[in-house]
Amino acid sequence: MILKGKRALVVGVANKRSLAWGVAQSLAREGAELFLTYQSDRLEKGVKDLADTIPGTKTLMCDVMSEAQVGAMVDKLKHGHGHGAGLDILVHAVVYARQEDLEGEFKNVTQEGWNTALDVSAFSLVSLTRAVAPLMEGRHGSIVTLSFLGATRAVMNYNIMGVAKAALEASVRYLASDLGPKGIRVNAVSAGPVRTLSAAGITGFSKMLDHVQERAPLRRNVDQGQVGDAAAFLASDLSRGITGHVLFVDSGYNIIGV
Ligand SMILES: NC(=O)c1ccc[n+]([C@@H]2O[C@H](COP(=O)([O-])OP(=O)(O)OC[C@H]3O[C@@H](n4cnc5c(N)ncnc54)[C@H](O)[C@@H]3O)[C@@H](O)[C@H]2O)c1
User: Fold this and answer.
1) Which pTM does this prediction carry?
2) Ligand 1 near 231 CB (within 6 A)
3) 253 is catalytic
4) Position 70 in a domain
5) Is residue 160 part of a domain?
6) Which residue owns the Cα nearest ligand 1 atom 34?
7) What is the whole-number distance in angstroms between the Cα of residue 125 and the centre of ligand 1?
């Protein structure tokens, strides 16, 4: 129970395959009180059904692109009950790019496609962090986001998402630098490929899974639970000496050369 007494906001659950749902389950198992958000009415029922499987879990609507919805969410967390007002943990597991920007040649990306992917997938970490940081002061807050190897390597068809993940990882370092003096840590888990709704949008994703299974030192793909447990570690005081870091949970694939 490494997270007993902590309040966690998990942004990015769409369905039971979401990595954010894996993280939520690990955080709950370790004793955290959970708030799950859903992006829109369309996802509300599914996320509420999942939340109902973890007693005490609350749900909130939040489209991260809406300043008003982020503000309303922060207000609700401010006046919370349970472990009291405030927040100890933010999990950011939000990503979006247009389908046409996840195939073919990267050079064909449009300005609109670029802006959309960077806004939703990277800027949202900065805006959410800014919004929740005041709730975390004085409580050893921890912020964890999810990244991918495409941030630092050219991965076929990942294209604009690689650029967005590079911006995300750089943001992790700058936010860690800003918030460290306030005792708030910011880290990323770089997960290996896992079949989720968003992953289905990447052309040739099944081939990526096969390739990692064949080549990774552990000769297997990772799952939601492995990503969730690493995020729980980064969210907990066990990782109190770690900030601005990208932790790979990918069966070791990132260390492989020829
Ligand atoms: N699946 C993988 O192979 C893999 C690997 C490494 C990293 N990741 C990262 O994990 C994170 C979660 O993705 P996933 O694979 O679980 O897919 P997913 O589709 O289950 O989750 C993506 C989430 O982003 C949310 N989202 C998109 N736009 C939003 C907005 N405007 N406001 C609020 N929420 C919004 C969606 O509602 C969804 O819940 C992403 O950052 C993704 O890049 C995934």
Assistant:
1) 0.98
2) no
3) no
4) yes
5) yes
6) 39
7) 12
